[in-house]
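Hi V.,

Quick status before I head out on leave. The structure for the redesign project is tokenized and pasted below; the design run finished overnight.
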């Protein structure tokens, strides 16, 4: 009888342990779990889907500019199912806006790209290219927007930020897409990978300073600049800071030390005795 009880007890304990392990796994946040080995190459798949899509537009006059530029940054998801343009032989998802009329110049348009991916070492960003057009759909200005990383206290202030300034009275429309140079580029990123997982740390630069590659799809916020975004854009990190001479050397240069002043005074007195 005691042997049977011991067997049953052992089975129950084993089941409890297995159940406990399962519960622990469920409670672990997704960003702290080991990356899945069969997750596949999301970036490669996204590029293939973009190349296989049939473009709707190839000239600036082909786009529909019925959507008004949002009065504050608004979230847009660009990817499979979105409309595709063929810009100078490069496929790209895009957004087209009508600019507000009679707005005081200059003003800024905010852009923010979110990380696309679960792990930093395999994440990428949609890097925007902007084109300003006049009433006849002729380009006034175009540029690849430089993205700069900002880690804020909320999702709203965290991401890769950029902006474009509207300073032309002729500007009527704004086209946002991603050029060939942007899609193959990178954005500087400064965040310790240790915040994600031990496995992620092994797969990335141990210093925590690295670059995030660009891709064809992702989440992009676009709209009139507001204070929250302005603060993020103006304080974002665009590259590795230059190395200085150190705090002590800087203080010595900026603030003469008391004993240095006394020493110089004594030298002067000794060289000019009364």
């Amino acid at each position: 009888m005691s042997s049977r009880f011991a067997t049953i007890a052992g089975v129950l304990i084993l089941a409890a342990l297995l159940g406990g392990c399962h519960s622990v796994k469920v409670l672990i946040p997704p960003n702290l779990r080991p990356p899945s080995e069969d997750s596949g190459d999301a970036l490669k798949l996204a590029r293939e889907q973009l190349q296989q899509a049939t473009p709707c537009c190839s000239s600036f006059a082909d786009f529909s500019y019925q959507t008004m530029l949002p009065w504050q940054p608004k979230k847009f998801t660009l990817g499979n199912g979105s409309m595709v343009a063929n810009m100078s032989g490069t496929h790209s998802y895009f957004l087209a806006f009508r600019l507000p009329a009679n707005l005081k110049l200059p003003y800024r348009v905010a852009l923010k790209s979110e990380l696309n991916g679960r792990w930093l070492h395999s994440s990428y960003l949609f890097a925007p290219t902007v084109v300003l057009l006049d009433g006849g759909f002729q380009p006034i200005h175009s540029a690849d927007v430089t993205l700069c990383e900002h880690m804020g206290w909320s999702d709203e202030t965290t991401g890769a930020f950029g902006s474009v300034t509207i300073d032309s009275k002729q500007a009527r429309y704004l086209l946002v897409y991603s050029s060939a140079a942007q899609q193959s580029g990178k954005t500087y990123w400064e965040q310790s990978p240790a915040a994600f997982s031990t496995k992620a740390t092994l797969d990335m630069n141990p210093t925590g300073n690295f670059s995030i590659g660009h891709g064809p799809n992702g989440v992009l916020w676009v709209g009139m600049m507001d204070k929250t975004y302005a603060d993020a854009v103006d304080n974002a990190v665009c590259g590795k800071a230059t190395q200085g001479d150190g705090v002590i050397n800087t203080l010595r240069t900026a603030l003469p030390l008391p004993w240095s002043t006394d020493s110089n005074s004594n030298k002067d007195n000794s060289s000019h005795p009364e």
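Above is the designed sequence. The mean pLDDT is 79.

G. will cover questions while I'm gone.

Best,
W.
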